[in-house]
Design brief:
The protein is an alpha/beta fold. A hairpin with a 5-residue loop joins strand 22 (423-431) and strand 23.
């Protein structure tokens, strides 16, 4: 059990931490891409960051400038993150699944000065999108960019060696940096403060317009540090990172955790179960993070058994409510004592975390207890009073980890941070007598059937035990008779051919009749956000469409 009296919050910036390890352990590997044998020590990486920072200064980036990073986990993603941090600019992390309208909204809303990007992902060419949004680029030289639609946008940097009209590439930025005097870099570097905004992440936008969450050095480094403490992190650890960096899971729970403990990051550019398994095997990784669907993909990969997972000791499963059975499989087959982190982008992200020394049952069925220096409470949404242990209410917290606010949106900030400084999550949870929390669902996700409250997670956890069920999501289906009824979306394991009645029979006599899914849909995949979260609102829409398509009467 961690003891708050022996812990502290640090006032170090990202640059301070990077320079600390470059001095302390210069020759230890910091960033490794095992699939291409690309390796940076703390010292060589810090030097590359300084050169990139000077390059960004040369194209007009300065304190407060918003610099977008729109790329999968490519080698220079982290270079740009730290380079902006060192000169007081703000890294705006962009969801890799964004398309034209979404990136346009984000560029406009964030007042983006410079966009750093790759050529895109499968099915989406970022360069085509940018030329479409900023047609002026086709007839403009680098450094002379003017956009009517995005007046703040001055530069586009291509992350790679290719050359595009009106774009710099990374090699050119590094070259330009050689002409920037050290004293200008040192001046900006010296102005950095741990309470400066260092990262803006846009909420996934599953409802309404995305909002820019302003996070400081102090927010994210300390959340990463405490996360690592709960997992006994040391410089000897090697963390395999296959979750996207644009999301808090990647940039804080993985990157900031490694940064504050001097650990190695073994990077996977885009999640692929085979590349991930091979990287763990080759580099002897000790830590692996992922959302449930990632662990399911690895465990079910036909080549799983040829890789040696015995070096693994711990990791985080987060981003979605975790099925108990899956936790058990990961524990047994991947030798990992998993912890769960609960929180949201607005809380940097961790509010609660289970600890390594917690009993297996606690790590399976709860999201642990509050982080040190964080006041977590379950608050009644109606009375705004704290709920006693055992009573469901809204998960709220205040402390060092709460965001600075939504960018240029005080009204939205005031809606979620109350007059006492508590961030309201919109999630339902309950605290047990030992101080551990269980998340029971989102306030909006709760299914209310004929006056009975049903937790989707409860039904999911039960259905997950059914032979043949690989993954399951339970959602509300609009019903004239009951207001809402229960729908289950199921991904089957290979070799199974389940039917709706099989699922209902499995439930009969085991869970309350009103909780048994009336509607059962078999699908190949769930709609996901770029960060690996399942978009339940789309499943609710799909349920109605599938019923209509298949002639299923909705009662």
């Amino acid at each position: 059990m961690s003891d708050q009296s022996n812990m502290q919050l640090f006032d170090k910036t990202l640059g301070d931490w990077l320079e600390y390890w470059a001095e302390e352990t210069p020759d230890r590997e910091y960033i490794v891409y095992s699939d291409r044998d690309l390796r940076f020590t703390w010292k060589t990486f810090n030097e590359r960051v300084d050169n990139m920072a000077k390059g960004l200064i040369s194209i007009g980036v300065t304190r407060g400038s918003k610099v977008g990073i729109w790329a999968q986990n490519v080698p220079d993603w982290l270079t740009f993150l730290y380079a902006t941090a060192k000169i007081g600019a703000v890294a705006v992390t962009v969801n890799t699944n964004y398309r034209s309208e979404e990136i346009a909204y984000l560029m406009k809303d964030s007042d983006m000065h410079t966009l750093c990007m790759t050529d895109g992902v499968a099915g989406s060419n970022y360069t085509d999108i940018i030329y479409e949004l900023v047609p002026e680029m086709r007839a403009t030289q680098r450094g002379k960019m003017r956009s009517d639609r995005f007046p703040e946008l001055k530069n586009v940097v291509y992350i790679g060696q290719e050359k595009y009209r009106c774009m710099y590439n990374t090699a050119e930025i590094l070259l330009l940096g050689k002409n920037v005097p050290d004293n200008e870099f040192k001046r900006l570097r010296g102005l950095s403060n741990c309470h400066d905004v260092v990262n803006m992440q846009y909420t996934s936008g599953t409802t309404g317009f995305p909002k820019g969450v302003m996070l400081t050095h102090h927010n994210i480094t300390n959340n990463g540090y405490l996360t690592g403490v709960h997992m006994n992190f040391t410089p000897e650890d090697k963390c395999c990172i296959c979750v996207p960096l644009f999301h808090c899971f990647g940039v804080v729970l993985a990157t900031m955790c490694c940064l504050t403990h001097g650990s190695t990051q073994v990077m996977v550019e885009r999640f692929d179960p085979l590349v991930t398994l091979a990287s763990i095997h080759k580099e002897r990784c000790t830590v692996l993070h992922g959302v449930p669907t990632m662990f399911i993909a690895q465990l079910n990969h036909p080549m799983f058994n040829i890789f040696d997972m015995s070096s693994l000791r711990t990791g985080i499963m987060a981003g979605a409510l975790c099925p108990e059975e899956l936790m058990r499989q990961v524990n047994e087959k991947m030798f990992m004592k998993l912890t769960s982190v609960y929180g949201m982008t607005e809380t940097s992200p961790g509010m609660t975390q289970s600890r390594l020394d917690d009993p297996f049952e606690v790590r399976c069925t709860t999201v642990g207890r509050n982080y040190e220096f964080t006041d977590v409470r379950v608050i009644d949404p109606e009375t705004r009073k704290e709920c006693p242990a055992g009573v469901v209410g809204e998960m709220c917290c205040r402390g060092y980890n709460v965001m600075k606010g939504y960018y240029k949106n005080q009204a939205a900030t005031a809606q979620v941070i109350d007059e006492n400084g508590f961030m309201h999550s919109g999630d339902l949870g309950v605290k047990d007598e030992n101080g551990n929390y269980r998340i029971t669902g989102r306030i909006k996700d709760m299914i209310i059937r004929g006056g009975e409250n049903i937790s989707p997670k409860e039904v999911e956890d039960y259905l997950y035990r059914m032979p043949g069920v690989k993954d399951v999501q339970v959602v509300a289906v609009a019903s004239e008779r009951y207001g809402e009824d229960v729908g289950a979306f199921i991904i089957q394991k290979e070799g199974f051919n389940l039917f709706r009645e099989d699922v209902r029979d499995f439930c009969k006599g085991h869970i309350a009749k009103y909780k048994i899914p009336r509607y059962v849909f078999f699908v190949d995949q769930f709609p996901m956000t770029g960060s690996g979260k399942i978009q339940k609102y789309l499943l609710r829409e799909m349920a109605l469409e599938l019923c209509k398509k298949n002639g299923i009467e909705i009662l």
